[in-house]
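Renewal narrative, Specific Aim 1. Our central claim is that a sequence can be written position by position from structural information alone. The example that follows is taken directly from our test logs and has not been curated for this report. It begins with the structure tokens describing the chain, in the order in which they were read.
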């Protein structure tokens, strides 16, 4: 396979499987506040959790550069997704507010690493003419997947609440959202990254 065809194949694989990453991420973001409030945690602490995630996401994104240099873009995307998905599942099993805060901070760190890794990965796997299309597709997939996740997990939580308590329904939904994130790894493993790309 030529280098050009290999890059195009990498891009097709990524654009399909990243849908599951963004559905997982959107589901977690949608359910997180609802779950915390259902645990009867105060609004002040909820605000602390959300602001801490935003702060970590913004401040520690530079760490992605260090990670990329050590692992390469493919392995960085895979590792960050594994950790993000695992943290999401663990969040669904947790009820202690301080543990939820720690998990949220770590979650913000790993998604910031993914977010910083994505643009150079897209650039490496598309030429100048196709790079704008690649970025526009990724942005559209992001937006669509997040909106779909709101619908999906809103409906799922409602259905589960018919058989379980609302709190248990939220916990199941969060765990399922985390498990969906692992699907991205199946596709990412198939990406062929040469050393010069990483």
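The sequence written for that structure reads:
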């Amino acid at each position: 396979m030529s280098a050009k065809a290999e890059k195009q194949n990498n891009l097709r694989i990524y654009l399909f499987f990243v849908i599951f990453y963004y559905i997982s991420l959107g589901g977690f973001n949608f359910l997180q506040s609802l779950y915390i409030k259902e645990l009867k945690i105060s609004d002040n602490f909820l605000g602390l959790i959300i602001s801490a995630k935003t702060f970590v996401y913004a401040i520690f994104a530079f760490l992605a550069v260090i990670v990329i240099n050590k692992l390469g873009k493919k392995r960085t995307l895979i590792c960050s997704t594994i950790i993000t998905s695992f943290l999401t599942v663990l969040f669904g099993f947790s009820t202690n507010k301080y543990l939820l805060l720690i998990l949220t901070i770590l979650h913000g760190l790993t998604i910031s690493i993914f977010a910083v890794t994505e643009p150079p990965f897209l650039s490496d796997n598309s030429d100048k003419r196709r790079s704008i299309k690649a970025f526009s597709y990724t942005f559209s997939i992001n937006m669509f997947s997040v909106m779909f996740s709101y619908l999906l997990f809103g409906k799922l939580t409602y259905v589960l609440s018919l058989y379980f308590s609302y709190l248990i329904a939220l916990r199941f939904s969060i765990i399922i959202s985390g498990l969906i994130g692992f699907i991205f790894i199946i596709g990412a493993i198939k990406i062929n990254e040469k050393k010069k790309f990483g």
